[in-house]
Amino acid sequence: MQKFKPQILTLKNQKTVTIREAEIDDAEKLLNCIKTYVPQSDYIPKLEQEIKLTIEQEKEWINYFLTNENSLLLIAEFENEIIGNIDLTGNRRKIMEHTAVIGMGMLKEWRNYGLGTALLKLAIEWAKENSILELLWLQVYTDNELGLRLYRKLGFEENGIMKNFFKQDGKYFDNLTMTINVK
Ligand SMILES: CC(C)(COP(=O)(O)OP(=O)(O)OC[C@H]1O[C@@H](n2cnc3c(N)ncnc32)[C@H](O)[C@@H]1OP(=O)(O)O)[C@@H](O)C(=O)NCCC(=O)NCCS
């Protein structure tokens, strides 16, 4: 059963994109999109060589969202290509099943045109209607200005910093946890 009704919207760059739930057949394109945007960002704590998922594993990952009621994976598409995604991974343990952690990203050329705002707004709206979810959370580098601006704008609150949590090329970065109540 479809969890999310596809949405069509025009971004600040005047391009029209579709936001829809990911399907198993999107695995290859989605993996390529993520493999492209991870090394294009200083604020995703994963090195290019650490993205080792096969297409089969990517299919399993997509299936997690299709089969877990407290989880959602949305993709943004432009002219049949996947340009970004947002995932709400609901916790599978009973005591934390009302919580989901958010991950999101997009190709560099699509940043700062409002796509992140659209993806996150739609994900929050979906979570508000979800019968299990009550709390969404995410972690963000305190230097990630676009991310921070977006999360604060949509109502996320700061919920603690782990100092020096990330270390890259001998430099340390702080990790901020942010949360939003959806009930
Ligand atoms: C972080 C990310 C998801 C945000 O999505 P996006 O589409 O670029 O964000 P939006 O365009 O919707 O919003 C960005 C906001 O930051 C603002 N902004 C831009 N530059 C800024 C700066 N230097 N300082 C503060 N705010 C800034 C924009 O004006 C916009 O705010 P507005 O809507 O009030 O005008 C996206 O940039 C991305 O994928 N980055 C790389 C991966 C990543 O960081 N993922 C998140 C990990 S937590």
Task: Explain what the structure shows.
- By secondary structure, this protein is an alpha+beta fold.
- It has one domain (7-181): Gcn5-related N-acetyltransferase (GNAT) (Aminopeptidase), CATH 3.40.630.30.
- The chain is 26% helix and 36% strand.
- Strands 1-2-3-4-5-6-8-7 form an 8-stranded mixed beta sheet, sandwiched between helices.
- The longest helix has 15 residues, at 115-129.
- Residues 41, 43-44, 104-106, 111-117, 138, 140, 144-147, 149-150, 153 line the site of coenzyme A.
- This is GNAT family N-acetyltransferase.
- One of its GO terms (molecular function) is acyltransferase activity, transferring groups other than amino-acyl groups.
- InterPro entries: Acyl_CoA_acyltransferase, GNAT_dom.
- Keywords: Transferase.
Question: Could you say which structural class the secondary elements and strand pairing correspond to?
Answer: alpha+beta
Could you say what the CATH architecture is?
A: 3-Layer(aba) Sandwich
Radius of gyration: 16 Å
CATH superfamily annotation:
Gcn5-related N-acetyltransferase (GNAT)
What brief labels describe this structure?
183 residues; alpha+beta; Aminopeptidase; eight-stranded mixed β-sheet; 4 helices; 8 strands; 36% strand; binds coenzyme A; transferase
SSE blueprint:
Blueprint: E1 7-10, E2 16-21, H1 27-37, H2 55-67, E3 72-78, E4 81-90, E5 99-106, H3 115-129, E6 135-141, H4 145-153, E7 157-168, E8 171-181
The structure holds coenzyme A.
Short structural description:
By secondary structure, the chain is an alpha+beta fold.
